[in-house]
């Protein structure tokens, strides 16, 4: 008699491939952007549809395993032992409805694909600083990008999604949903992956074909002058302008422009929609002699030029916080922690504008009341990689006197469940936990953003 192994039923139930450790293709499926983490999932399902995702969830439940999901690998920070990993990168359909200014995308789509598909219609999505990032994970964490002060969070513009919950059901939920589905529509838009696996997303596009923006990069010696000028200048800007300033320690990478290789620099990022951008930026351009100035009128397809985020996988560590104010003393504290820092980046983003406004259909996005967001990134490589987590933690702790209530999920970094839960008000935190306990009482889904 032929033995029937547990995976047999799964292989018959899904259209996509299934990989076990040691199989050809397994390593590629589990690999993420952050190579500091090496997932060792018990099984990987290369999902091609919502039905495949549902079958994977049912299989995991039947065999006592947890479920994780990965599209681009930017958010995966666990090793996933005894876990079924659902890889959604094959779910890459993008559909644009130019008449209604909407996009519908599969769970594996990156922002670059949406930008490319929307551009011929004079439309743009509310993507983040890097178009290399996946749409779904970014949006379920709120989604704060280079047009955020004008249009708000990406999650504010979601109209519908398809989600597979822990019971293996495929649910189509839209902005008119009520009851449990209405709770999910609120929670998923801002509460990350605590409620299920989103397999399709429909959201509004905005009528933007181009922008005035880029980066003005100053030498590290000008950091004090630039940061103090920026903190006074940024709050005076109109909502059409989104900006940040970043203290960067750059590697001697030949792919970088020659003036920047191996240097400490200050990058002032700038995105302006409409006329008058050059006049608004003029005071900051005059603070010091820049090493590079890439700010110009650009098509929206060139939006990555603002932040110039890396696209190659690396071993990274990130952590952030939100600020209620950015005083001279706050700026001096940041500057003090930047001296001889092992961190690759300390960035401060101006919030406010449309970011602070609640959408017509409420959602669970946190951090709206903050004035600034701080985000640190370090590379866990070199002779003393252990210094990176301590340096980021020390900066966040030093900024506590100016901290805002709550914070931004996607910029929180590695955090305990209690710290994750503290991002929301007591009422919203309680509501999120209740919804999660209702739809996933056994905590089937393994996510690095765990509600405490």
UniProtKB/TrEMBL annotation:
- Keywords of the record: FAD, Flavoprotein, Oxidoreductase
User: Is the Flavoprotein keyword given for this protein?
Assistant: yes
Highest taxon in the source lineage: Bacteria
Mind telling me which SUPFAM superfamilies this protein's record contains?
Answer: FAD-binding/transporter-associated domain-like
Q: Which PROSITE patterns does the record associate with it?
A: FAD_PCMH
User: Which Pfam family is one of those matched by this entry?
Assistant: FAD_binding_4
Q: Which cofactor does it need?
A: FAD
Name a GO molecular-function annotation: oxidoreductase activity
Does Flavoprotein count among this protein's keywords? Answer: yes
Under InterPro entries, the record lists: FAD-bd_PCMH, FAD-bd_PCMH-like_sf, FAD-bd_PCMH_sub1, FAD-bd_PCMH_sub2, FAD-linked_Oxidoreductase, Oxid_FAD_bind_N
Q: Where is the FAD-binding PCMH-type domain?
A: 37-208
Family in the record: Belongs to the oxygen-dependent FAD-linked oxidoreductase family.
What's the name of the protein? FAD/FMN-containing dehydrogenase
Species this protein is from: Pseudonocardia oroxyli
